[in-house]
C-alpha cells in the first residue's frame, strides 16, 4: 500500500516494451524500508532473478569495504601485483582502481564489431580469466590523474579481494553480504580462474537488489547490525568526476546524481539501475534491456517517480 497519488499507475506505465525505452522488465519502489510499488513485464514476477550487469561493481565496493573492516585490504596501499612491479603500474593503489583512475589502457564499448576491451575480456580472449586479461593492460596516464570507466578495473579489484579471502570468497559473498541483508535470491558468478566477476555478474530479484540499495541508504547498517565500515557509504559517493556522457558524478564504484543530495546510483548495461536517494528515504530499482542511446529516458522516468516523494524537511 502507498498513499502517493498516481504512483502505482506511473510505475506500471514504465514496464513492458516501449519505443522510447525498449524493454523494462521490473521496477520496484521502496520507501522508508517498505516496498510501496512494483510492476513486472509479462513473464517476469517478483521471484524472477535478473542480471545486474555493472550494478555488480557497486556490490564489489561493498565487498571491499567488508574486507577492509576485517583488516584484509588497505585501499591506500599499492596493489602489490607482481607483474606490475617493474614499471609505474606498481604505483596503482586499490583506491585508484575503485575510483576508475588507474591509468590502465581500456576501451569500454559494448557495440559488437567495434574495438572493445570489455567484450574481449568477457566473451573473447580474456573470458577464462578476466582479471589476468585486465592486468596486462599498459599505462596510458599516471595513476590517479585521469578517469575513465573500465570493467577490467573492477575485475582486478575482484582478484585482489579473492587473493585476500582465499577459499572463503564464495562464503564471504553469500553469507556475509547476501544472507546478512536478506538477498535470498542472489547469486554471484565466478570465471574459470575462480574470480568473482565483480564487473558484471550478479543475479537477483528486483526486490533483492532493492535490499542492497537499502544497505547504502542506511549507511551500511542492516537493522542493528553493521555490515559495512563506518564511513564506507560516504567513500562510495566521494565524487571524483562528472562524466560528460551521462552528466552524472562518479565516486568509488558508484555514480551520483547532481541535484539529489547524497545520492548513489548503481548503474549497468541495458539500463539496470538502483537509485539510492537518502533525502527522500527512497530506493528505486529498474531492470530491463535498453540500448545506450535510450538510457537517459529510462533514468528520467525513474526520477519522475522519485520526485513524487517529498524531500525530508520539505512540505
Helix and strand layout, with pairings?
Elements: H1 7-14, E1 16-18, E2 22-31, E3 34-40, E4 50-51, H2 55-69, H3 94-98, H4 117-123, H5 130-135, H6 151-165, H7 169-181, E5 187-188, E6 202-204, H8 206-217, E7 221-222, E8 225-226, H9 232-236, E9 241-242, E10 249-250, E11 255-256, E12 264-268, E13 272-277, E14 282-289, H10 295-306
Antiparallel strand pairs: 1-2, 2-3, 2-14, 4-6, 5-6, 7-8, 9-10, 10-11, 12-13, 13-14
Helix pairs in contact: 2-6
Description of the molecule:
The protein is of the alpha+beta class and 315 residues long. It has one domain (7-306): DD-peptidase/beta-lactamase superfamily (Beta-lactamase, 3-Layer(aba) Sandwich), CATH 3.40.710.10. The protein is 31% helix and 18% strand. It contains 10 helices and 14 strands. Strands 1, 2, 3, 12, 13 and 14 form a 6-stranded antiparallel sheet that branches. It starts with 6 loop residues before the first helix and ends in a 9-residue tail after the last helix. 48% of the residues are buried.
Provide the descriptors you would attach to this structure in a database record.
alpha+beta; Beta-lactamase; six-stranded antiparallel β-sheet
Amino acid at each position: 500500500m502507498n498513499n502517493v497519488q498516481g504512483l502505482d499507475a506511473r510505475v506500471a506505465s514504465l514496464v513492458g516494451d516501449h519505443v522510447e525505452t525498449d524493454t523494462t522488465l521490473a521496477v520496484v519502489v521502496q520507501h522508508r524500508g517498505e516496498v510501496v510499488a512494483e510492476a513486472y513485464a509479462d513473464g517476469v514476477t517478483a521471484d524472477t532473478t535478473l542480471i545486474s550487469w555493472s550494478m555488480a561493481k557497486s556490490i564489489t565496493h561493498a565487498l571491499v569495504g567488508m574486507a577492509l573492516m576485517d583488516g584484509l585490504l588497505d585501499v591506500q596501499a599499492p596493489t602489490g601485483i607482481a607483474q606490475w612491479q617493474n614499471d609505474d603500474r606498481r604505483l596503482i593503489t586499490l583506491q585508484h582502481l575503485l575510483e576508475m583512475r588507474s591509468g590502465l589502457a581500456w576501451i569500454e564499448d559494448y557495440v559488437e564489431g567495434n574495438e572493445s576491451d570489455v567484450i574481449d575480456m568477457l566473451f573473447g580472449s580474456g573470458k577464462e580469466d578476466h582479471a589476468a586479461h585486465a592486468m596486462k593492460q599498459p599505462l596510458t596516464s599516471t595513476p590517479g590523474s585521469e578517469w575513465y570507466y573500465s570493467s577490467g578495473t573492477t575485475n582486478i579489484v575482484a582478484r585482489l579481494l579473492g587473493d585476500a579471502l582465499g577459499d572463503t570468497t564464495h562464503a564471504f559473498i553469500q553469507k556475509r553480504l547476501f544472507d546478512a541483508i536478506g538477498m535470498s535470491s542472489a547469486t554471484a558468478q565466478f570465471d574459470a580462474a575462480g574470480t568473482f566477476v565483480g564487473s558484471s555478474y550478479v543475479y537477483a530479484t528486483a526486490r533483492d537488489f532493492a535490499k542492497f540499495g537499502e544497505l547504502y541508504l542506511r549507511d551500511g547498517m542492516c537493522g542493528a547490525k553493521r555490515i559495512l565500515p563506518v564511513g564506507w557509504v560516504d567513500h562510495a559517493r566521494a565524487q571524483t568526476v562528472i562524466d560528460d556522457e551521462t552528466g552524472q558524478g562518479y565516486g568509488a564504484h558508484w555514480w551520483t546524481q547532481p541535484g539529489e543530495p547524497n545520492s548513489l546510483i548503481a548503474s549497468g548495461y541495458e539500463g539496470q539501475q538502483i537509485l539510492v536517494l537518502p533525502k527522500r528515504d527512497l530506493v528505486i530499482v529498474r531492470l530491463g534491456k535498453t540500448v545506450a542511446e535510450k538510457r537517459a529516458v529510462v533514468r528520467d522516468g525513474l526520477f519522475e517517480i522519485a520526485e513524487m516523494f517529498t524531500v525530508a524537511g520539505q512540505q
